[in-house]
């Protein structure tokens, strides 16, 4: 549609959804960006459903903001269907979905266990697809809705030590753009957020100085909230990074390669502090084992 090409007209072509009393579902909302987003939406009057694979942290966040919680394994389509049914039964609709859940194991690709590869792809890719698949029917039927998928600058910038993570975020970004086009004209919009390095537990143990700009969860949440108004196809955090990388890759591709080399030398993803990352790695190991066992039982 021509309206999608004219700044501002795409948002005006779709039903406006006020945050006050809007029904919002956020995945991976027990910590980090998701928890920060849950608080921000609740502060603006939204009815927030906090979902996470760890039910206890989801419940704690929900209690602190006056929301509701669900245990949700985003890799399980049946769990998604049941969760969405519960929200619809209680609220009658879902206005916003923030697909935030993600994992970020790092290290040499040849050392990556198959179970780790499966977890990254299942959470970061299937989780996004499952979420969109679950909420789209009710949104399309209502003629309105907005989905925000949290991708990453790793969806456009190849990072050594993060081969599978890169693959997952390229996929999440591409899926967002494709779904946006497929559902154009239905009243349902899809936006992708591409943050640079974010100061959350996922980045624990990493020296966040050097080649990549760093941001806080609040910066990412501001970008999420901005898409409610603009319905932008993609937003990078900081805002200059996506245009900057794409422009450099097109006209000065060796500059992007130089960034990649600097990341290797800087040890960004290949030499993380094991002490600083210990808590996250412990939780990630538990999640990997549980995920592998569930898949083996199927």
Please explain how this structure is put together.
The protein has a single domain, classed as Rossmann fold (3-Layer(aba) Sandwich). Helix content is 50%, strand content 13%. It has 10 helices and 9 strands. The strands form 2 sheets. Strands 3-2-1-4-5-6-9 form a 7-stranded parallel sheet, sandwiched between helices. A two-stranded parallel sheet has the order 7-8. Helix 4 (77-91) packs parallel to helix 5 (114-142). The N and C termini lie far apart (43 Å).
Report, as a whole number of angstroms, the end-to-end distance.
43 Å
Please state the second-level CATH architecture. Answer: 3-Layer(aba) Sandwich
Number of H- or I-type helical stretches: 10
Rg over CA atoms, rounded to whole Å, is: 19 Å
Percent of residues in β-strands: 5-15%
Which structural class matches the secondary elements?
Answer: alpha/beta
Do you know the CATH topology?
A: Rossmann fold
Largest sheet: 7 strands, parallel
CATH class category label: Alpha Beta
Q: Total domains, how many?
A: 1
Number of strands: 9
Oligomer: single chain
The strand line-up of the biggest sheet is 3-2-1-4-5-6-9
Short characterization:
Pfam families: adh_short (PF00106). Keywords: NADP, Oxidoreductase. The protein is α/β, with parallel strands linked by helices.
Helices and strands, with pairings:
Layout: H1 9-12, E1 23-26, H2 32-43, E2 47-52, H3 55-65, E3 68-71, H4 77-91, E4 96-99, H5 114-142, E5 145-150, H6 163-182, E6 188-195, E7 197-198, E8 214-215, H7 217-230, E9 234-237, H8 241-251, H9 253-266, H10 278-297
Parallel strand pairs: 1-2, 1-4, 2-3, 4-5, 5-6, 6-9, 7-8
Helix pairs in contact: 2-3, 2-7, 4-5, 5-6, 5-10, 8-9
InterPro entries: KR_dom, NAD(P)-bd_dom_sf, SDR_fam
Pfam families: adh_short
Protein name: Short-chain dehydrogenase
């Amino acid at each position: 549609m021509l309206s999608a090409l004219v700044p501002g007209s795409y948002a005006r072509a779709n039903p406006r959804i006020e945050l006050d009393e809007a029904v919002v579902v956020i995945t991976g909302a027990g910590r980090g960006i998701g928890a920060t987003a849950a608080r921000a939406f609740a502060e603006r009057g939204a009815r927030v459903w906090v979902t996470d694979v760890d039910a206890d942290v989801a419940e704690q966040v929900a209690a602190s903001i006056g929301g509701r919680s669900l245990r949700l394994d985003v890799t399980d389509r049946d769990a998604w269907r049941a969760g969405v049914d519960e929200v619809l039964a209680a609220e009658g609709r879902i206005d916003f979905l923030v697909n935030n859940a993600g994992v970020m194991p790092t290290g040499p690709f040849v050392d990556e266990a198959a179970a780790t590869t499966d977890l990254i792809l299942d959470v970061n890719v299937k989780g996004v697809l499952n979420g969109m698949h679950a909420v789209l029917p009710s949104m399309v039927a209502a003629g309105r809705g907005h989905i925000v998928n949290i991708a990453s600058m790793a969806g456009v910038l190849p990072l050594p030590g993060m081969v599978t993570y890169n693959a997952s975020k390229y996929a999440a970004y591409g899926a967002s753009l494709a779904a946006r086009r497929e559902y154009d004209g239905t009243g349902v919009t899809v936006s992708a957020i591409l943050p640079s390095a974010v100061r959350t537990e996922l980045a624990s143990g990493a020296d966040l100085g050097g080649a990549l700009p760093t941001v806080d969860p609040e910066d990412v949440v501001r970008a999420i909230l901005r898409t409610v108004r603009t319905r932008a196809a993609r937003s990078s955090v900081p805002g200059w990074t996506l245009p900057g990388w794409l422009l450099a890759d097109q006209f000065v591709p060796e500059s992007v390669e130089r960034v990649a080399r600097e990341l290797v030398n800087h040890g960004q993803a290949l030499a993380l502090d094991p002490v600083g990352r210990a808590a996250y790695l412990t939780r990630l190991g538990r999640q990997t084992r549980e995920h592998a066992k569930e898949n083996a039982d199927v």
